[in-house]
């Protein structure tokens, strides 16, 4: 049981990392698809900074923390008003609800269910098949070469993750949006877990080009870069209830927040994260793994644009013209104009929560390393809980 508890705590720390790659919607934002939402709302008593806001200035609290419980809307007078406002949050709209309703009770039940399934069917060696999978890659295919193992992960994971994301329109027609979200999430979580712990266990394998991890300022710079990388998340991850398929997933078109800086924040964040880790661990294994991760996210830039154009057509193409993949490029070229009160799009509850979680993840590193060591030292426990079913089918 102690082993099972350790495995479970470890996967909880990794779940947040994987959730970052889901392309999910945020229904707490305003629905700008309707004509009423597209029209600016103007009140005689409002200053220009509230021109495109439904927010009454008199309703804004003097408590500085109130901005986290109810997002303040920025001045969007220069926007196309074709995309949604990212990260908007209002605590008053959140409900616990009963089990089966679109509330937090159902969310926690759904998360507990999917994580339990991941632990039992994949992570915990006596019942799961993750150790069998890694053993197959390491022994049968790579013959003990960790570089080949991480290369295989770098091929298999993008095929599964991006492949299922690309099949989403067809899958949702067959089984529905919520069921397809689970089909998408389960193998992605399993594979990402196995790849992450394999990376932690073998980060120092191969040729050691340099080792500057003990230099104080290098560690500090790498930490700050790594922390900042988690702020570059695609806005759809902000709504946890859609991540867990409690609310129906949609393909949203975003126009504010980090999208103003880069249209593909996930890619930029991955580049930053990879550069920070490579600066700390200068081995051939780490370098190969970072190249594979960045390469996958570079492909996701093209694939993401393709999917958004298929879903939103001309509206996406217009927003694409006002944004860029390279950070700040659209801004310095004059295609994107930041609002005077742009800070309101950044100081929002989901982003603050991610910042706090990133700090927590840093202090959780020893537990991640312990979990990776546990996985490595546990060795192969062949088979799993579904063996009787497989034997009966044979």
Structure description:
It is a single chain. The protein is an all-alpha fold. It is built from 18 helices and two strands. The chain has helices spanning 2-19, 35-38, 66-69, 104-123, 130-141, 146-166, 168-175, 177-202, 216-229, 240-243, 265-280, 284-312, 314-321, 329-332, 343-346, 349-363, 365-378, 387-393; strands at residues 208-210, 282-283. Strands 1-2 form a two-stranded antiparallel sheet. α6 (146-166) packs parallel to α12 (284-312). The protein is globular, with a radius of gyration of 22 Å. The two termini are 32 Å apart.
Distance between the amino and carboxyl termini: 32 Å
Radius of gyration: 22 Å
What characteristic shape results from the CA principal axes?
A: globular
Sheet having the most strands? 2 strands, antiparallel
Classify the beta-strand content into a percent band.
under 5%
| Order of strands across the main sheet | 1-2
Number of helices: 18
What is the residue-averaged pLDDT?
Answer: 85
Secondary-structure element order, N to C: HHHHHHHHEHHHEHHHHHHH
Helical content stands at: 55-70%
- Total number of β-strand segments? 2
- The structure class reads mainly alpha
Assembly context of the chains:
single chain
Return residue spans where pLDDT drops below 50 for at least 5 consecutive residues. 1-54
């Amino acid at each position: 049981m102690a082993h099972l508890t350790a495995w479970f705590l470890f996967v909880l720390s990794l779940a947040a990392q994987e959730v970052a790659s889901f392309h999910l919607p945020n229904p707490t934002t305003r629905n700008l698809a309707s004509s009423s939402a597209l029209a600016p709302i103007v009140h005689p008593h409002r200053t220009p900074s509230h021109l495109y806001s439904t927010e009454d200035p008199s309703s804004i609290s003097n408590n500085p923390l109130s901005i986290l419980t109810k997002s303040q809307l920025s001045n969007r007078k220069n926007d196309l008003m074709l995309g949604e406002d990212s990260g908007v949050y209002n605590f008053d709209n959140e409900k616990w609800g009963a089990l089966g309703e679109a509330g937090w009770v159902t969310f926690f039940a759904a998360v507990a269910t999917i994580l339990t399934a991941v632990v039992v069917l994949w992570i915990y060696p006596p019942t799961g098949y993750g150790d069998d999978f890694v053993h197959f890659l390491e022994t049968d295919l790579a013959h003990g070469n960790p570089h080949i193992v991480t290369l295989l992960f770098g091929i298999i994971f993008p095929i599964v993750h991006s492949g299922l994301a690309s099949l989403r329109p067809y899958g949702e027609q067959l089984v529905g949006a919520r069921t397809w979200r689970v089909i998408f999430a389960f193998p992605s979580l399993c594979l990402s877990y196995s790849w992450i712990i394999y990376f932690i266990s073998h980060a120092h394998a191969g040729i050691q080009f340099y080792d500057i991890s003990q230099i104080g300022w290098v560690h500090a710079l790498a930490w700050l870069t790594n922390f900042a990388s988690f702020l570059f998340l695609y806005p759809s991850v902000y709504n946890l209830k859609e991540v867990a398929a409690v609310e129906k997933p949609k393909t949203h078109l975003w126009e504010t927040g980090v999208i103003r800086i880069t249209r593909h924040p996930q890619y930029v964040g991955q580049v930053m994260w990879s550069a920070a880790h490579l600066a700390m661990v200068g081995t051939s294994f780490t370098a190969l793994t970072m190249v594979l991760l960045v390469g996958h996210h570079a492909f996701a830039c093209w694939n993401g644009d393709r999917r958004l154009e298929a879903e939103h057509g001309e509206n996406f193409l217009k927003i694409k013209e006002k944004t860029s993949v390279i950070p700040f490029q659209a801004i310095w070229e004059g295609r994107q104009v930041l609002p005077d009160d742009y800070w309101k799009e950044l100081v929002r509850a989901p982003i603050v929560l991610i910042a706090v979680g990133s700090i927590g993840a840093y202090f959780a590193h020893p537990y991640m390393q312990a979990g990776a060591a546990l996985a490595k030292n546990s060795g192969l426990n062949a088979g799993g809980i579904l063996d009787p079913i497989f034997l009966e089918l044979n």
